[in-house]
Amino acid sequence: MISAACFNENYLIIGCINFVLKVYDLKTKELIHELNGHRGEIVSIQNDDEKLISGDENSEIKIWNIKNGQCEATLTGHIGAICALQFDKNILVSGSVDTTIKIWNIKTKACLMTLTGHTSYVYCLKFNDQYICSGSSDNTIKVWSLKTGKCLKTLIGHEKGVVCLQFDNQKIISGSVDETIKVWNIKTGKCLYTLLHHNGSIWNLFYDNTHMISSSFDHSLCIWDFASDIY
């Protein structure tokens, strides 16, 4: 059974409840690696064409060479399941059930900072060259400085946990177990509007500056036009 998955144009990676990662070449449709090493269910995965990074329920993060399937490092420091991962170049950011966010240097394998402030699980996060945005089961979204680790804003408005988000330099879009999607001004922290259509927890969001796709436990997908605010 699948516990997590991610893909890009070249690879599909599946995490299984038996602690195994499977790597497929999307061009040949072949299984090229079965990666063993995790000691708990794999709950988060991110990849590019060089690296695969996976997090498990036993608080370990593993960095793999996607070409040869070798595990290059195991990062420890969290004390709960790794719910969220994102990396870019040599920076990795992880969020955990232990309520913290950690910033890592992938090259040195060192933890650079631990961000504290959420009072419950960190379910989701994204970052760019300035900000980290995180969503939590404490119903809030926090905006952090990537450089200093300081919490810049806490966005309050969802009635249940925030499980997915996207952001750009102007706005944050968040999806929640409360069945709503909210759009926030990233500078002021003000909620600009709330999107109401789904009848179940929001599961995931994809955003490309003009359109957004939302998926929900109500078994539907919605496509939103951000130019005209219609779906």
Can you give a write-up of this model?
The protein has 231 residues and is mostly beta strands. It folds into two domains: 1-116, YVTN repeat-like/Quinoprotein amine dehydrogenase (Methylamine Dehydrogenase, Chain H), CATH 2.130.10; 124-231, Methylamine Dehydrogenase, Chain H. It is 0% helix and 57% strand. It is built from no helices and 23 strands. A hairpin with a 2-residue loop joins strand 9 (82-88) and strand 10. It starts with a strand and ends in a 6-residue tail after the last strand.
Strand content: over 45%
* CATH-level-4 superfamily name of the largest domain: YVTN repeat-like/Quinoprotein amine dehydrogenase
Largest sheet: 4 strands, antiparallel
The coarse overall form would be: globular
* Extended strand count: 23
Spatial strand order of the main sheet: 1-2-3-4
CATH topology of the largest domain: Methylamine Dehydrogenase, Chain H
Could you name the ranges where pLDDT drops below 50 across 5 or more consecutive residues? none
Q: Terminal Cα separation, in Å?
A: 33 Å
Tally of individual domains: 2
CATH class category name of the largest domain: Mainly Beta
Summed over residues and divided by their number, the pLDDT gives a mean of 95
- What structural class do you assign from the helix and strand content? mainly beta
